[in-house]
Amino acid sequence: MRSWQFNHIDFSIYPYYGGDDLGVHYSPEALQIKVWAPTARQVELKIYARSAGGRAIRHEQLELAANGVWELRLEGDFKGLFYTIRVNDGEWLAETPGIEARAVGINGKRALIFDPQETNPEGWENDQPIVLDSPVDAVLYELHVRDFSKSPASGMEHKGQFLAFTEQETQTPDGLASGIGHLKELGITHVHLLPVFDFFTVDENHPDEKYNWGYDPLNYNTPEGSYASNPDDTSRITEFKRLVQSLHAVGIGVVMDVVYNHTGYTRRSYLNQTVPGYYYRQNRNGNFSNASGCGNEIASERAMARKYIIDSLKYWASEFHLDGFRFDLMGIHDVETMNAIRQELDQLRPGILLYGEGWAADYSPMDENYRAVKRNVKKLKGIACFNDDMRDAIKGNNFEAKNRGFVNGRTLNEEAVKFGVVAACYHPKIVYSYVESSREAWAKEPWQCVNYVSCHDNFTLFDKLKQSCPKATDDQLRKMQKLAFALILTSQGIPFIHAGSEFCRSKNGEHNSYKSDDRINQIDWTLKSGYQDVFEYTRKLIALRTNVGAFRMRSADDIRKHLHFSKNYEPGVLAYSILDYPNPFGWKTIQLVFNARQEATTMQLDEHNWQVVARDDEIELEGIDCLLDKQVSVPPLSMMILVKND
Q1: Summary mean pLDDT of the chain
Q2: Which CATH superfamily is domain 11-119 in?
Q3: d(CA 578, CA 544)
Q4: In CA terms, which of 64, 124, 204, 280 is 20 to 30 Å from 377?
């Protein structure tokens, strides 16, 4: 019986294969099969008529070629049949669809032989990715495919499926835009989709019986079947392309959440059943290490593991026209691999967004100095990191329900908020000893920082505010929500919004809903009318950011030159000005004041000719009114923006 310990194995001596033809490749004349399995003694291919059940209709042995590759050419047209690959490295391992599989049948146990050209929807050749001048021009919107449409109030027909994103002019029961129309109305630039590659928890035969976020990868190179109209053919591929095509048609990019840091299974994973131990890191005792907290961690530093990740990303970017990738637990990956990803994707198509979580979930045997953790972001090329410092500064500790931040009543942490305002870059007017979570700037440039206040993990923002302020009125909670968004959407860096939080999304207080049912996770579209004021304010903030480049400066030097924090300290109040930054309105000075107090605060001004462009729920670039006094009253729990032209 195999022990699954890997003591004293030098994985670095395994041969490297640099070709781009691994896997099973179809033509009407023949199948070409190549499998990298350097420890194998035998490799066999089985062909089946169906995706599950029944005996194999053909068995074939692959032959060992060079560099650990086993290969076979099989004459004939096999389109529509299924196959598995099995490796013998001293004993026969489990049948798998092969780690390169690009189409699979129900539940991903057998791979489907298909013609990729037949998966392209009509007009696919004219689809164009979304390219930004700078990553800071992005407004990211994190969304789970199933959550988007599952609610009875969504107005969408294809509930829980990719095709819901192709439905036009859908509405809530109150006649407000839902679905893709809502996204366009809101003004975001990119939809960030939680994992859409094939994951194992949800039974594709009965998708409504279980729910999962999808951070349990099974097949990395094919879309998830529970989101397709038919999980047993190529519908999942065509329909995901239609999702991308539909969003691109309205000017919205698509970012894919990728989980190359671990697999859902460990010993039984398809990677481990192909080359045992190779794709995973081990502890000193030879057992699988677990920086992911999910039982394993991918050894991204090993040559063929690195190649596998890069090849997979290039496939998704080219075949599906994707606009970016978000790396789950990026801090598990090594810096060298992340930089190689950037280089390879730039050669494929410059401008693809790359960002991730700059941390791991547990101990890794790889020294942190070599991993893509937050403190090493300066070593990364064109890759951004989530700013959890800003997240916790705004609303309080992410893991403690009662803990408070700036918007919900904690004073004396204004320095931590300032840290996020400048996108975690160095600024001489920040006292870093007062920033509890990061005592120094970790970003070199603003495009390396993704500012956010909530995401799929932990409490929704609204639930966190309710838990930490149980005596707050509904009006106060709305104002806190708006103030949090005002900070995120006017700060430097890349802003990120959790889907539905623009109308106070709740998960009924559930802080870890990764496998909770649809009742908890689905976006309740009726909230859009109930919290229309929050939605409208968020929409105006996005428009403000889009139209005023001062809120998305390109460089840290520009931030230090143009952004000046107020010298007057008042607990619960943050104020700063942006001076002489070019804008189409001729503003020489932009003054921002964030009042997190429960009462109004008074700000002294240097002269009379100020215009108010943001106050309470109003944001008007043409100006709301002119000030006649040298002081202004800033309402409680609100942002005010004043401008002047001289």
Answers
A1: 96
A2: Immunoglobulins (2.60.40.10)
A3: 15
A4: 280
